[in-house]
From TrEMBL:
UniProt keyword terms in alphabetical order: Amino-acid biosynthesis, Cytoplasm, Diaminopimelate biosynthesis, Lysine biosynthesis, NAD, NADP, Oxidoreductase
One GO MF term attached to the UniProt entry: NADP binding
Protein family (similarity comment): Belongs to the DapB family.
Catalytic reaction(s) noted: (S)-2,3,4,5-tetrahydrodipicolinate + NAD(+) + H2O = (2S,4S)-4-hydroxy-2,3,4,5-tetrahydrodipicolinate + NADH + H(+); (S)-2,3,4,5-tetrahydrodipicolinate + NADP(+) + H2O = (2S,4S)-4-hydroxy-2,3,4,5-tetrahydrodipicolinate + NADPH + H(+)
Keyword Acetylation: no
Its biological purpose: Catalyzes the conversion of 4-hydroxy-tetrahydrodipicolinate (HTPA) to tetrahydrodipicolinate.
Organism (species): Algibacter lectus
Protein name: 4-hydroxy-tetrahydrodipicolinate reductase
Binding site for NADP(+): 32
Keyword Oxidoreductase among UniProt keywords: yes
Length: 234
């Protein structure tokens, strides 16, 4: 498969290594100063760039009929526009806040736990995410997906709040510590005990492998998909 990398930073470079190991060709590497490139030489594009350019990168792929995978976080104000464009162009598109197989299992575990805890009013839920100091957005996309998994399954919460507390809002604390690839912890606390579930990424290989698997899966398909479709879970 011929792959275009849109964003050649930490994730773009890790994806390149894994894609080559799986027998693919990287035919295009696009980074911040590359404006004039031909996306049509790729079978699929993988966008891991920065929040304010992701939608533009995705639109360019959809306008040229190239299936596109995006892992960039912090651009979701435009997610519905990407879906509409994909439908209009009969293209193929997947966004995931986290492509790692382990985190996608963790997302399902989080929803199941949220359902189980929803009748136990003595527990308060909170979340912590820890990432490296170069991260541009907070809270992380993964933390937002986890929060949505709780809010949609527990009527005591109707939203989330970063570094603050308010009635019915799930509090999220975002910490930035050098070199941490990504740690997410969900905590249920009562006066008598604490339940926690967490996911700790040891490096970026898991995110990259999931993105390559998603790009292998999407070629030849039409529609807007999620990692649950790719992994057949949920
Ligand atoms: N969904 C997932 O599984 C994961 C998502 N991420 C997200 O992916 C994004 C990238 O993460 P990293 O690679 O760690 O960041 P990074 O900062 O190392 O790489 C981003 C790259 O995008 C480049 N860029 C800037 N403007 C561009 C443009 N117009 N077109 C193409 N590239 C451009 C930057 O120069 C940089 O090299 C972030 O939003 C991060 O939150 C990161 C890891 C996993
Ligand atoms: O910026 C990162 O590094 C990561 N970003 C994603 C997020 O915002 O959830 C996924 C992963 O946690 C690493």
């Amino acid at each position: 498969m011929n792959i275009a990398l849109l964003g050649y930073g930490r994730m773009g470079q890790t994806i390149e290594q894994i894609a080559i190991k799986r027998g693919h060709n990287i035919v295009l590497k696009v980074d911040k100063d590359d404006t004039d490139y031909d996306i049509t030489k790729a079978d699929v594009a993988i966008d891991f760039s920065i929040p304010n350019v992701a939608f533009n990168n995705i639109s360019n792929c959809l306008n040229n009929n190239i299936p596109v995978i995006s892992g960039t976080t912090g651009w979701l104000d435009n997610y519905d526009n990407a879906v509409a464009l994909c439908e209009e162009k009969k293209g193929a598109f997947i966004y995931a806040s986290n492509f790692s197989l382990g985190v996608n299992i963790f997302f399902e575990l989080n929803k199941t736990l949220a359902k189980m805890m929803s009748t136990l009013e003595q527990y308060n839920v909170s979340m912590e995410e820890i990432h490296h100091t170069k991260k541009l957005d907070a809270p992380s996309g993964t933390a937002i997906t986890l929060a949505e998994g709780i809010i949609n399954n527990n009527p005591h919460y109707d939203g989330w709040m970063l570094d603050d507390k308010a009635d019915k809002k799930l509090p999220i604390v975002a910490k930035r510590i050098e070199d941490v690839p990504g740690t997410h912890t969900v905590t249920y606390q009562s006066e008598v005990d604490t339940i926690t579930i967490d996911h700790v990424a040891h490096n970026r290989q898991g995110f990259a492998l999931g993105a390559v698997i998603a790009s292998e899966w999407i070629v030849g398909k039409t529609g807007v998909f999620t990692m649950n479709d790719v992994l057949n879970i949920g």
